[in-house]
Each structure stands twice: as C-alpha cells, then as structure tokens.
Amino acid sequence: MHRSFWRDHLPEIIMALANVFAVGLGMGVPVFAILLGFPVGWWLVRRFQRAAGPAGLDPATGLRQLLVWGAGLAGVTLLLALVIWSPQVPNAFDPGFDAVEFGIPLILYTSQASMIGWLVLMIVVSPVLQWMAALTGGALALVTTPRAKR
Fold this sequence. Notes:
Number of strands: 0
Number of helices: 7
Radius of gyration: 19 Å
Structural class: mainly alpha
C-alpha cells in the first residue's frame, strides 16, 4: 500500500513551517530561526537513531545526514531571506538612502555600508548560522547518545 505524500513528509513540512513562523516572529530578522536550529538538529539525530533501529546509528552516517538536512533547513531560511530582503538591494547602492530612517542599525561608518552589511548579514550569514546551529545541536545529540556494544 502506498502512503500519501503528506504522511511521508509531515515532519519536514512541520519543520519548514516552524522555520517560516520563526522568521516571521523576528519580523524578517531570522534570529529565532537560528535558535530553532539547535532543537531541530537534536531532533533530527534522534529521528535518524530511531530509523537505524537496534543496530544503532553510525556517527559518520548521522553527521552526513545531519549536514544534508541542516542545509535543507538553512535553504528554507535563505529562500525566505531572499524574498524579504532582496527588494532592498537597490537601496544599498543608492548614495542618498538613509539606513537609519529605514530602521537598519548603523553598524558601519556610513549609511550605505551599513545597508550592505545588513543585507549580507540577513541573506548570507543568517542561513549559515542556522545551519551551524543545527549541526551543533545534532552533534551534541550524537555525543550524548550511549553507543551500542558490538
């Protein structure tokens, strides 16, 4: 009997929707999505261990799967960041644009440099940080798991 798509992929769908909610909770700043990476990484490793059965999960296989699934989660954040922040890219190269009035913190010396830095932070660095958080949570789950005796 063939299972439905929704039943097969329900955990992934819930994870992606939780990620969308976390980005929305931060109003486009994915700080909560980055923090979501830790429990997602932990949960992913526990899920891989349950799927491995009584033989146990090989740590190298678990890390490989965690790299891929963590990258998928970060890919959702990257897609959301592109949708939210890419319309502001032309403002970053407008010399008359005032980042402070737009609500961007003046993290660098000039308004234009701050806007460019902010966009790089939101679009590039945030998904990488989320991926690293998922890897850290998953690695901690692997380390705290007692190994099966062979």
